[in-house]
Amino acid sequence: RSILFSFLQFSHPLFSFLLTMVNLIASHIVKPAKPIPTKVMFLSECDQRVAVTHATVVHFYKPESPELLNDATEVLKDSLSEALVAFYPLAGRLYPKDGGRVELHCNSMGALLVEAQSELKIQDLGDFCPAPQIRALIPPIDNNNTPLHEVPLLLVQITKFACGGVSIGLAVSRVIADGQSGFILFPNGQRLHVVKNLMINHF
């Protein structure tokens, strides 16, 4: 099951306690598995007009075997590293320019991968109705207090639930990818064994 968010849509009472039930364990910077082109990429006028924020989505999965989740973070880390070779702009950073413009530096700074755990079961989330509280399943982004060139363009959070299921939350820069193309990375990630190696099924 997947949920796309604007965070302005709906609220749901089952999510009201979610923020306090998700514990962040660790974070990792994941860089491309191979050398990539180092360059500054031109951004179109349409890209320049997009708000410098991230589009977000959460995928939920149930495991075939709970034991297979023990190495889930390492599997995801390796798969993201491979995916960033093909999608190397997402490993870069945006830099501010004069006149409120930004430019993309492909510099292999990497994506952010966050590990988290929850005492909840996925079933506790009910009908998966989008709600502001569910942002606890998406990596935290502080655009207000973090310099633009330090904000990753791709952030991923894997949250392990008490039932053995997992969620994978993605945040992709709107400047680099729109809502439809931004999450093409994840299906390609599946082919790169992000999901296949975990041996888990989509809800």
Task: Explain this structure.
The chain is of the alpha+beta class. It has helices spanning 45-49, 72-86, 185-191, and strands at 2-5, 22-30, 39-41, 54-63, 93-96, 102-106, 111-118, 154-160, 166-173, 200-202. A hairpin with a 5-residue loop joins strand 8 and strand 9 (166-173). It is globular and about 50 Å long.
Helix-strand topology string: EEEHEHEEEEEHE
What gyration radius follows from the Cα positions, in whole Å?
Answer: 17 Å
Q: Determine the number of helices (DSSP H or I, runs of at least 4 residues).
A: 3
Largest sheet: 7 strands, mixed
The SS-based structural class is alpha+beta
Note the gap between the termini. 5 Å
Tell me, rounded to a whole number, the average pLDDT.
Answer: 77
Residues in helix, %: 10-25%
Keywords:
single chain, 203 residues, alpha+beta, 7-stranded mixed sheet, 3-stranded antiparallel sheet, 3 helices, globular, disordered N terminus
Task: Describe what is shown at a glance.
The protein is α+β, with helices and mostly antiparallel strands and 203 residues long.
Task: Please outline the helices and strands.
Elements: E1 2-5, E2 22-30, E3 39-41, H1 45-49, E4 54-63, H2 72-86, E5 93-96, E6 102-106, E7 111-118, E8 154-160, E9 166-173, H3 185-191, E10 200-202
